[in-house]
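Reopening this ticket.

The earlier resolution said the output was attached, but the attachment link was broken on my side. Pasting everything inline this time so it's all in one place.
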Amino acid sequence: MMNISFENIDIIGNVINENELYKHYHYPEMLSRYSSNFIEFKIMPTLNELLEAEQFMRDFHLKNGQYHVEFVFPQDKEIAVELIEHLNNQDYSIEKNELYVINPSEFPEVKVDKDICVEKVDSVRLMEYLRIQYELDLQYGENFANEKQDLMKRNYNNENVIQIIAYYKDMPAGAVDVILTEEFAEIDNLFVLESLQRKGIGSILQKFVMDTYKDRKVILVADGDDTPREMYQRQNYQYLGFQYEVLKVYNE
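Inline output:
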């Protein structure tokens, strides 16, 4: 298999500074999106290097009215004990993300359900897609939900981002975005409304992606501590590696 890594995963954000230690991502169009405004370490930092980057990010974000610090560590590297101790003492959340790939032909067959319909988002379905996303994003605050709406409108006009919506008994039930490159179709933002989960909607959304992009490998990132990763493993996705990210949110 070709060499696939987290570098193949799309990042919404701009590299505004890069040195031997890290890349600094910033996305002024959506300052509230943590995973668009962060530092990605190219090599594992020492404690002093982490402290310096932490102070830099804190100062930089405060100037922009941002109240978080997020770091992403190198792929397949465990975080040193002294760094873990500092992160825990400073109340960072620590997440382990996992990278998966599948050839579309290896995805299991999915039982057809006449109550479930999946369509690409077009001008007719855009408002339903935006509305269901807004309802989901409100849990992260109204400002985030509104900024996310603008992002999704930009994506609608981006030929490399395909937005897909699922209906259950003609009502919007879930959605997924597919980010296209020459070699890959990346599954992103896959969700099903909580009240409609366990009906096979998520699998049917994925199957739609597999059938539509048979000529590409399908990749995605899963939360290493969450249950969807178990679903992906059952669906024949191949595990490729892990990456830690840490986040601290400050009181405004």
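Reporter confirms the inline version is readable. The first helix runs from residue 47 to 63. The chain is about 30% helix and 30% strand.
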